[in-house]
């Protein structure tokens, strides 16, 4: 999933919409239900997307699943598009939690490579949370074909994900140019999304998907690192060197 994928502050800064008039006796200007209610709404939206897809998503259904009023959903997210946008960020935040192996710290290139391998492999954990997250992300990506506004949000999230992965590749290949790191990161994220789609469709076992991801990472790292000089056997240098 994806992992990814932009800070919550940056996403919230883009949310400029006010609540619509929901009608009826409910007052959408009531105080918000707090972070727990907000998170519950986003979790309910993710579950609904994973079950029915984005086109089948209804605000009333999300409210019922989150056990809140429809007016409260509108209060927090403005409209259905705002709900989709923030759910996209919620999916990225969840993927960040279940893929991050631990607090990063100074490490050698091979240690950084092992950590990155583990992080990418965690995208294919066969657990309800990962399956739901990856399915909902895929549904949002498919809906973007028909929704230009959502397409823009996904493009920004994808760009954030590529930059994040490039940052993780930097300690693995410290001498690689920034452009090369960005290219490798973009190829890896595209491959991960494709493998995830096949895995979720039952066309690829999770273990094999993770193995293919590790192979692709290894190939990218070989291309990013400078070639090693051939090792000369002991005594050969003296024999091959010209006489003084």
From TrEMBL:
HTH tetR-type domain boundaries: 35-95
Region described as Disordered: spans on this chain: 1-37
Extent of Basic and acidic residues compositional bias: 1-17, 27-37
Record-linked Gene3D superfamilies: Tetracycline Repressor, domain 2
Binding region for DNA: 58-77
Keywords: DNA-binding, Repressor, Transcription, Transcription regulation
Domain of life: Bacteria
Name this polypeptide is given: HTH tetR-type domain-containing protein
Protein species of origin: Streptomyces hydrogenans
